[in-house]
Design goal:
4 copies of one chain form a homotetramer.
Chain A (H helix, E strand, L loop, with lengths): L17 H15 L10 H8 L3 H7 L3 H13 L11 H17 L1 H13 L3 H28 L9 H19 L5 H13 L15
Helix pairs in contact in A: 1-2, 1-4, 2-3, 4-6, 4-7, 5-9, 6-7, 7-8, 8-9
Chain D binds a DNA duplex through α2 and α3.
Chain lengths: 210, 210, 210, 210
DNA sequence: GGATAATCGAGACGGTACGTCAAGTCTTCTT
DNA sequence: AAGAAGACTTGACGTACCGTCTCGATTATCC
């Protein structure tokens, strides 16, 4: 077999073996997708499944949370993209459905495990935020701010708060209630949050498109 | 020391020692509140701190998640109650602030740890739902349904979805973003979700009281 | 089922239940005969198999060694008897074969286990000596002393030493070497010890009857 | 402290630490010599006293019997040697006294414990036979066969049977009867077994040297 | 080309906690 | 009072991983 070695700069010594790195992330991914999730993930297990010495794992990651985070986010990140339909509600709704599809898939299990581990591991939750949530937030804020400028959205609401209001219920269902995240749910959620829970006092005509 | 023994019915055998039970839950509670949270909780540690044999712990609880759940929920449950001001928005807002106070306190740490453990332990998450969330939900649904009847709230929204919309953002902040949960946040959150995110197209006068 | 109760004297309280005693000894016997021997014998196991409370076992025997000893010796003792042929060598030889038959049987396993346990339990080894070995010794000494009086055996040898010389090799084979104890072995052993190992210097006619 | 590591062949991995091995055997030896003998020997105790992880003990020995056996036999084996006086009876008698001295000493306790454990542990008794008894037997057979050739001993007796006859009584006393093993006993034993128990029919003068 | 340096695999090391088992004691109700 | 039931403390069992370490082997750069 051909070993792939890294060639970074002109440092002396044997360069890092990229095969090992890949094998470790691959093994981690597979274990995370298994029945036990993050609880079944052990450094020893990773090393063995990757056919690698334990030292090699520890050399590059300080703990299993880091490996898990990297294994997950390098693989899953590109999958969720924002559309751009011109309508705030449509953009958000489509992206929500996309997100829910990911959360419902096998990857959702891994993500759940990761988020669970994060409750007692600050680094892991930080990785979760910075590598998973923040990239989406950037795009989300962009869409919302465009909607504010176009007059579609109220200008007096903090954008992050608005995103929390939209996505919070999804995470609540996903993380705590473990309920299905289907299209109907997304539609109803969008409607409720965009329009508000209160009855309209005036007989203003509401135009809810579904 | 005086040992307190249970006297249930006329069963043969030595009755269960209530001191042991109490000591175990107490010890668990203290460990959970410590620096490491759920990660520092070990069955051995519980037994030692409670001055109890490990077997005694295992006799009554199958794993540390169960002990943790019982330790937490028997202690914290009564603390969060709903007010009844007559106004939907006020009731919810006050209760939300109450909830946020709990989540912000030392107990919040325990709860966070518990929910974390629940991601890889179905029984624990079930305990979380049934013993922590559901009792609150019952009262919440009651308030909302009253508001629907009085015309304050839109009748076309599923009550549980509405509660998800209201409380989801709190959990998102609490579990994922680890951001402060202060009164200002609650006020803004209530406003956004009750009124909706969209701009009102007509020049209808909005009466937001803050 | 009819419970058999003891009626010793006019002592107050419930009399001892003889069924329990018998069941305990029976259970002990069965466990001792199993694959693990003395190592598989536990007070808990005895109580359970006998359908008896642990307390009842502890009330009458201080430890499992005592139970084992009583279970074994009350059952096996009557089996070994000395014949009386009139000839010292014949009596001993026949009894030896009888003994070897017992040691070779399933009971031998129990006995081996018991003696093993006795190495770290003074009470057990004492029970072994007083209840198993000594009764035989009494009879053995009798036979030997008769043989001394009749001139068949040398009068200058301590009787116990003689018995050690005769039976020691059997125990050595049984306990240490775990070799078969067949009739041929007994015949050769008797011959060697009775006649001595040394060559006869004079041309004295030897009359070895086999 | 300087750690001594083994250098066997070109095997991969960290070489075995000889210090640990030595410390384990040393600790085992000390515990075996203590008040409780084999009964006080626990894997945990060995590890703790040796300043070693429990895993390290289990890595090299499957159970405490194995550790005990190795601890004992590597230390005690060289102590018992056969003399070579030219006379069969003298050689045996001196060696017997040597053996009895060992059995009587502190080491005797360990050996007794080992032999006891062996009754329910085939591997242990096998170790006892192959590492303790057989080396002596080899030399014993040699002496006896020389005695047969020189005409001092009867040629019609199996050598192993003869050795059983000579040493069996010692083990009987040591293992079962727990009686003292002094020089007088050895002298009388030798006399009885070499000369035989039977009275001499002819008036042949016996020359017993004591 | 030989020294130096970093990486790799393998696996032993001292530890911690696991979940189980049995020991022997204690407390209750029943007979 | 004896017996059953069963909860209690204690302590060892054997296993799984932890994170660290010490090897020989490999693969580069630098002199």
């Amino acid at each position: 077999m051909e070993k792939v070695l890294e060639k970074v700069e002109n440092r002396p010594g044997r360069p890092r073996c990229l095969d090992a790195r890949r094998a470790i992330l691959e093994a981690t991914w597979e274990i995370l997708g298994g029945a036990g999730g993050f609880a079944d993930l052990t450094m020893e297990g990773i090393a063995e499944r990757a056919g690698v010495g334990k030292t090699t794992v520890y050399r590059w990651w300080p703990n299993k949370a880091s490996v898990a985070a990297e294994a997950f986010f390098t693989r899953i990140e590109p999958k969720v993209r924002f559309p751009d339909t011109g309508s705030l509600r449509e953009d958000i709704r489509l992206q929500m459905k996309e997100l829910c599809k990911v959360l419902t898939s096998r990857n959702g299990r891994v993500l759940r495990a990761l988020l669970g581990g994060g409750q007692s591991d600050p680094e892991l939750i930080e990785a979760f935020r910075s590598q998973w949530m923040e990239p989406r937030r950037v795009k989300g804020r962009e869409i919302l701010s465009k909607a504010v400028r176009s007059g579609e959205m109220r200008p007096d609401i903090d954008l992050d708060l608005a995103l929390d209001a939209l996505y919070g219920p999804i995470y609540l269902r996903f993380h705590v209630k473990h309920l299905p995240l289907d299209d109907l749910f997304v539609d109803q959620l969008c409607d409720s949050v965009f329009e508000g829970l209160l009855a309209k006092t005036s007989a203003r005509p509401r135009s809810r498109a579904h």
